[in-house]
Amino acid sequence: MPRYEQLADDMEAAVRRGVFAAGERVPSVRRASVQHGVSIKTVVHAYALLESRGVIESRPQSGFFVKARPVQRDGPDSREDLVARAAQAARGTKPRRAGAAKVPMGSVPNAVPAPVDVSRLVLSTLRSIVAQDAVPLGSPYPDPALFPWRRINQYANAIARRHASWNLIDDLPPGNPELIRQIARRYAENGADVDPEEIVITVGATEAINLSLQAVAKPGDTVAVESPTYYAMLHAIERLGMRAIEVSTHPDTGIDLDALERVLARKKVAACMVMPNFQNPLGFRMPEAHMKRLVALAEAHDLPVIENDVYQELYFGPTRPSSLKQFDTRGLVLHCASFSKSLSASYRIGWALPGRYRAQVEKLKFLNTLTTPSVPQVALADYLRHDGYDRHLRRLRRFYRQQARLMRAMIERFFPAGTRTSDPQGGYVLWVELPPRVDSMRLYRAALAQGITIGPGYMFSMRNDFHHYIRLNYSYPWTEQTEAALKTLGELAAKMA
Amino acid sequence: MPRYEQLADDMEAAVRRGVFAAGERVPSVRRASVQHGVSIKTVVHAYALLESRGVIESRPQSGFFVKARPVQRDGPDSREDLVARAAQAARGTKPRRAGAAKVPMGSVPNAVPAPVDVSRLVLSTLRSIVAQDAVPLGSPYPDPALFPWRRINQYANAIARRHASWNLIDDLPPGNPELIRQIARRYAENGADVDPEEIVITVGATEAINLSLQAVAKPGDTVAVESPTYYAMLHAIERLGMRAIEVSTHPDTGIDLDALERVLARKKVAACMVMPNFQNPLGFRMPEAHMKRLVALAEAHDLPVIENDVYQELYFGPTRPSSLKQFDTRGLVLHCASFSKSLSASYRIGWALPGRYRAQVEKLKFLNTLTTPSVPQVALADYLRHDGYDRHLRRLRRFYRQQARLMRAMIERFFPAGTRTSDPQGGYVLWVELPPRVDSMRLYRAALAQGITIGPGYMFSMRNDFHHYIRLNYSYPWTEQTEAALKTLGELAAKMA
Q1: Which one of B16, B34, B167 would you mutate to disrupt binding with A, by most A Cβ within 10 Å of its Cβ?
Q2: Are the Cβ atoms of A19 and B178 closer than 8 angstroms?
Q3: Cβ-defined contact of A369 to B149 (cutoff 8 Å)
Q4: Which of residues 1-40 of A touch B (CB under 8 A)?
Q5: What stretch of H or E contains A351?
Q6: Where is the signal peptide (chains A, B) (predicted)?
Q7: Side-chain half-sphere of B66: how many Cα atoms within 13 Å?
Q8: Are strands A455-456 and A429-433 parallel, antiparallel or unpaired?
Q9: Residues 341-360, chain B: which have Cβ within 8 Å of A?
Q10: Is the dihedral of CA A336, A341, A346, A347 positive or negative?
């Protein structure tokens, strides 16, 4: 790619990201040449290209400016119209096929531990979402527009003004004491008895999971995971040079405890990683009886269990789900969670409740990233203390539940016979089983060419069990574009089936 | 400790941290009892204790309020007075003893690789600084009050307002493109040719160093480090279950290249970790000829070199120092740096230039913490683009250089005969060799009892070579308290000698 084209791409990306706002002046040709270390000619070329793309415009005697663009996201009114229309369309669809009502099948246990390398696929999928500016059905993240970012930003700004300079040393691991207290209070209010002293604040749940795994297992060890599993679990295993053993997982009740018991009887397993609430991608809520049995199994085998509970607040039922942690009497459960799915993704604040492994996790946190940035910690603590988190969550849950129904109905309407969908009990992702002849990577590439992303099943397992499954994100408000994208996906799948 | 006292301690810490500002109302007894899950009686007890400590006051009919306290930090005028007085006092001191002018001795190479566990000592030292609110001579961090936090906060706030909700996916590794560009531009302006494509943004230099080490070595491998070395290097080795081999390091020129060559000839070494510019704790600036020879040695042995260059901007001489990276033609140098020592510590923004290991480092970043928070990245990019970073740095360098002189003079004045100090060429720490009979851990404990912290030599090596050395931080503006603390330290050391 010629240098000028690269520069133009970079600048266009910067404009899209809002580094230069609409109407703002971009650096002069001379300045840009110095800034980017390229010749004047290269900048002139790049700017001409950006003009022809409609990104910037030249104004005589004043330079180049970012062109105003029509707002792409629908306003609240038209969005509601659309949702109403889509819901009506969904209701008008033919009665549910028997097959469509069924949930995707559970998987077969994999008896052979395998070293892991799924991260490349995941990272390139995520990148394509950004690069193509595509309909983000493949995104693992919730629509941040639904979060109370304005309030949180206000708290952050007030703190920054009040505290001025922040001393790094004030928030050494385990983290900001006030945030820790607020997190413990929330658990308490929800009937879970959590000792604030146990909490360690981390950079998102990602770090919490990584540190937890490192605290209980070492390179070369075997770790039991669900199948399909959330790929962050596989990443943690990959990062530490461990081996994963996949255990059959039921779409309604979670990891198959008989299968897990057989694995434990046969193999030395250093840890087990599960997501009992609204697992990504399956969306189940593990029944309490299963939770208790899993904890009992862990105790019988002295097996540390890493519980990823990032969706704990996003339940669709009338009550907040339990967690493995609540049934753990021997400190074997390392409970990991975050605010990224329910309050603020970009702040990257998570935590671990590492049970008897607390000291190791805290020390590893210190070694891994020293501290978690302070202002985001205090801003979230202030929000939790003074603001309407519960009100926000009620709204979010209602919205996700409605979106889940809508997307299931749309899939039933547009997708080929033989398609089956999960019935999520919380969270914001849907797991879709396509006819076996549809390869999810082929579908992924075909969809991407049309500006649509999906999460191919390959990301969720090291086996080939889920080659015809995809994960879809329903957190983004329904638009005509979403509907058109699902229609296109359905047509592409039908052609491949 | 009884529950009410613990609660009082926690609340006092919260007040000190500014969670409750002076004059602000603290939660009512009833509310606090619910919040902290303790009885009304416990809260009443705790509040009474806080009243007697002078932290809060009760106002009839209205509850408890945080008491206004006299501002503890001196205003700019009195501070200047103090510095002037201290400088004068220093000039009045007896002429330098021959011994005092000498720099501390280099160490003996350690031929036996040892597994590492220094982090516990370091973490507890850091904690004691917070808990005791002591004179922070033992702190590894620069005084944040000297940073342009007001400007940076303004940028952060403007971004938060402009962008509102931030999509996590926008700043996937390698990181925010604009920040990457600004970092590359700075290198370019300083004559270092850096490809922006090589940069990976991390959570501080800590993460950059961790990921770099993980990219080039595996558990059980041996890694060569300086002796004394900055303990973050030892932490990285400890975190990954590797072994460290300490190489004699000269206080003026850095790692002993002959000694390193002998180690390489004898042992399989997976990587070498050094800090060529203003090493913490020694403060030397490695001569360019040494840098070139070190890179040549690395190339001859195909040895990855992790270069910690966090003090690159804090030079006292007329020119910015070179870095190993500039002499590296084969991509063997993994250069790590951050803004934490020169612009904003609490933002936790660092980066790596990982040479030929870039793909691995980027992937490990993704696995380790997913992304680095966005707003801090963009705020620093905006600051670099629009603000007076160079002006700020010039001021900071001048100030640190003056402080270094002042502290050396004070030590000469107050410390026992046989004390020798380093002559830092940059940065903000001083390395002090005490008479051999002074044990730095004993001194550390005795000093802490007097409200003074120091960095005991044990933190910088797994050997016993530095038991009579301490590291002192001179980034904090000179006050009477600093002077009194140094005097006390000198007296304690004299007693032990």
Answers
A1: B167
A2: yes
A3: no
A4: 10, 13-14, 17-19, 21, 35-37
A5: strand A349-353
A6: none
A7: 20
A8: unpaired
A9: 345-348
A10: negative
Please provide the CATH number assigned to the domain covering A148-387.
3.40.640.10
Transcribe B437-483 into DSSP letters: T--HHHHHHHHHHTTB--EEGGGG-SSSTTTTEEEEE--SPP-HHHH
Q: CB-based contact (8 Å) between A289 and chain B?
A: no
Residues of A whose CB is below 8 A from B144: 165-168
In this prediction, residue B100 has a pLDDT band, given cuts at 50, 70 and 90, of very low
Q: Mean pLDDT of successive 10-residue segments in chain A (497 residues)?
A: 83 76 83 84 83 77 74 38 55 40 45 61 76 76 86 84 66 90 88 88 96 95 95 90 93 95 95 98 97 97 97 94 95 97 90 95 91 88 89 93 94 95 96 95 90 91 88 92 94 95
Q: Which of residues 152-171 of B touch A (CB under 8 A)?
A: 153, 156-157, 160-170
Q: Where are the alpha helices (DSSP H) in B267-373?
A: 288-301, 324-327, 358-369
Distance CA B212, CA A431 (A): 36
A435 cis-preceded (ω within 30 degrees of 0) = no
Quick one: A76-107+116-144+391-496 is in which CATH superfamily?
Aspartate Aminotransferase, domain 1 (3.90.1150.10)
Nearest CB neighbour to B163, from listed A18, A170, A370: A18
Q: Which tokens belong to A122? A: 């995941």
CATH code reported for the domain at B3-66: 1.10.10.10
CA dihedral B69, B70, B73, B74 (to 10 degrees): 170
Please tell me the CATH code under which domain B76-105+117-144+392-496 is placed.
Answer: 3.90.1150.10
Q: How far apart are CA B67 and CA B50, in angstroms?
A: 10
* Residue A425 token pair: 């009990």
CATH number belonging to domain B148-389: 3.40.640.10
Those of residues 243-262 in B touching chain A at CB distance below 8 A are none
CA distance B396 to B413: 26
